[in-house]
Design goal:
It contains 12 helices and 15 strands. By secondary structure, the chain is an alpha/beta fold. Helix 8 (457-519) packs across helix 9 (557-574) and helix 8 crosses helix 10.
């Protein structure tokens, strides 16, 4: 619009006013035409580059044809610019409103070709069609928004004034709040200091009272100790006097007592020697007596055991004799057939009893198994019960902690004079105490970070906006550079992918061809492990002629070596070098495989010079120049070279 000189033009919806009841109907009829630009030119000189509707002013206006029974939509539209009246008559010609009380079936027959009815909901009716209105674009409600915009424009000065007063009152209240908070902090510090001093004084008084009580009890105890010590001193004085008198008497009798003591000591020594001898003899006698008693008990036990065995044997003998007599009597009375029948019945009964016994044992084993299972279940339930008990104990501890925290919070509310209803209005059911505490700390931290009101915020905002504009431009440059780099990366990936695919296909073709040469048949190929060739791996498939191997690991050592040679030579064909060095690659090959290997090397030696280390005679026969290392003397190596062509010419001469 700026390039075509159409910017700054007013829209059609800004120049008209519609009754509120028929705003939707007008939007349904005109659609995008409501957003038409009011042009100040009679006709545009250039065509705009996109879809655009221009409202061209005109002084010519025709008198519309009106029905006697219908009301035109144009009657509900007021145009503030008379030069647009002809445009509205052109666009709204033949458009009539359908009121709610009107009957659609009666109004439709009165319409002519090109005329229509529109209701308040925006539905358009003609004789041959019905168009139901729906808000489908961003212009929906533009007339309603125009009325709201006008009302808001009228209310804006009063609201700006109220906002200024509110901001001023807010600033005053914030300053008062800051002063009150500062005063509260100061008074809280003073209260804490006073409380600490009072507590220290109370502790000092308690310590002094305790020390006083301890001193009084100590004084009573010391007086009692003094009285007891005085009484004991009197008793010791009396005892000392008595001991002194006894000591004098003993000193007088001391010589006779010493002689008596010497005689008593010698007699005591003789008595002790006799006592030791008697004690040893008594110990020996007791030992022999114990041994005799023990042996006697053993003999008595053996006698009793033998008697019991004799008695048991005699009882068994009598029982056997009785059973023998009974059996002989039964044999004499009972014929052999009866005995056999009884024996069979007894055997059957025995089998049934054994089967019942086995069944009972199985049932017992099942019961024991069930019992073990129940015991395991019980142990598992007990093990599961321990965490539940721990959780119950933790829940009790948390409940007690929550109750203590609730009491502290309630005390803090009472101390600060805040009602619970004020706080409950801003809380939700899902709120937790820890979350609320963290939120409180965050709010306090944010309030402390904000500090006083910054009067230079508007200037800083303008500076930051300029900086943002500069950073946006820099960001746009970086985005464009990033897009350029991404395009280059995509181009490189596309070219790399194409070249790599071509290289892979050529290597795969060379690999199969060289594999057929080395094995005289068979097939080999390379396969990608994934979809993306730049990130995937490669798997080797090789199947010599006459083999149905599922994996390459089923090949022999020589077959694996030939497969590796085929792959290496296939890669070597892609970018051949002037020299190729091989170190005993023919070691695991037999003679036939060695001959095929030598044939391949001869064929490739047309463009590349091969140097190889080998001990195989067939491979050495293929070489044109031989260089060997020999050791004729111990510790002395010597290089010997042989030119095969010169040797053959010498042999021919």
């Amino acid at each position: 619009l700026s390039q075509k000189g159409l910017d700054g033009q007013a829209r059609l919806w800004q120049a008209i006013s519609v009754e509120p009841a028929w705003q939707v109907a007008l939007e349904a009829v005109l659609g995008n035409k409501l957003n038409a630009l009011i042009s100040d030119q009679s006709r545009p000189t250039q065509r705009p580059p996109s879809a655009l509707v221009l409202a061209l002013p005109s002084s010519a206006a025709a008198t519309p044809v009106k029905h006697t029974s219908l009301v035109a939509l144009l009657d509900h539209v007021t145009c503030q610019q008379p030069q647009l009246q002809g445009l509205l008559q052109e666009w709204l010609s033949g458009v009539y409103v359908l009121a709610e009380e009107q009957d659609l079936a009666q109004a439709l027959p009165s319409l002519s070709m090109g005329e229509c009815l529109v209701n308040a909901a925006g539905d358009i009716y003609t004789q041959h069609s019905v168009s139901y209105y729906g808000a489908q674009n961003q212009l929906h409600g533009v007339l309603e928004r125009q009325q709201q915009l006008a009302k808001l424009t009228q209310q804006q000065p009063a609201l700006n004034l109220a906002l200024a007063h509110a901001q001023q009152a807010l600033t005053q209240h914030e300053q008062a709040l800051q002063a009150l908070r500062q005063q509260q902090v100061t008074e809280s510090h003073a209260l804490k200091q006073t409380t600490a001093d009072l507590h220290a004084v109370q502790l000092t008084i308690a310590r002094l009272k305790q020390a006083f009580e301890h001193a009084k009890s100590r004084e009573v105890a010391i007086k009692a100790d003094i009285e007891h010590a005085q009484h004991k001193q009197d008793q010791l004085t009396l005892e000392h006097v008595e001991k002194q008198s006894q000591l004098a008497l003993l000193l007088a009798d001391l010589p006779s007592l010493e002689q008596a003591a010497q005689g008593a000591a010698s007699a005591q020594q003789l008595a002790e020697q006799a006592y030791v001898a008697l004690r040893d003899a008594l110990q020996k006698a007791e030992k022999s007596q114990h041994e005799r008693m023990f042996n006697k008990k053993l003999i008595i036990n053996k006698i009793n055991e033998l008697n019991s065995k004799i008695k048991v044997n005699s009882e068994e003998k009598s029982a056997y004799l009785h059973r023998q007599a009974d059996a002989e009597h039964r044999l004499t009375l009972t014929p052999m057939d009866t005995l056999k029948a009884n024996l069979n019945a007894a055997l059957n009964k025995k089998q049934l009893a054994e089967a019942a016994l086995a069944q009972a044992r199985n049932h017992l084993a099942e019961q024991e198994q069930q019992l073990q299972t129940q015991e395991k279940v019980r142990l598992q339930q007990e093990q599961q019960l321990h965490p539940l008990r721990d959780q119950l104990e933790q829940s009790r501890l948390k409940e007690q902690q929550a109750r203590l925290y609730f009491e502290q919070c309630q005390a803090a509310l009472i101390e600060n004079g805040i009602a619970e209803a004020v706080l409950a209005a801003g809380l939700t059911v899902q709120s937790k105490s820890s979350e609320l505490a963290n939120k409180t700390l965050q709010i306090q931290r944010k309030m402390n970070d904000l500090g006083a009101v910054n009067l230079a915020a508007i200037v800083e905002l303008a500076t930051e906006q300029e900086r943002k504009t500069y950073l946006d431009s820099q960001m746009l440059d970086l985005s464009q550079a990033s897009e350029t780099l991404e395009d280059a990366i995509r181009k490189i990936d596309r070219e790399t992918r194409g070249k790599l695919q071509a290289t892979f296909d050529e290597a795969n073709r060379n690999f199969n061809e060289l594999f057929n040469v080395l094995f005289a048949g068979g097939q080999a190929r390379l396969e990608l492990l994934g979809e993306e060739i730049l990130d995937t791996g490669i798997q080797v498939f090789a199947q010599p002629p006459g083999k149905k191997n599922t994996t390459i690991q089923m090949l022999s050592g020589g077959e694996k070596a030939l497969t590796a040679m085929a792959l290496v030579f296939a890669l070597f064909r892609l970018n051949p070098a002037p020299f190729c060095l091989m170190d005993e690659v023919d070691a695991p090959l037999d003679d036939s495989n060695t001959e095929r290997f030598c044939g391949l090397v001869k064929k490739m030696s047309e463009r590349t010079q091969f140097l190889f280390v080998s001990h195989n005679k067939i491979t050495m026969e293929m070489a044109q120049q031989l260089i060997g290392v020999t050791m004729q003397e111990s510790g002395v190596s010597r290089v010997v070279d042989v030119d095969i062509e010169a040797a053959l010419s010498m042999q021919a001469a």
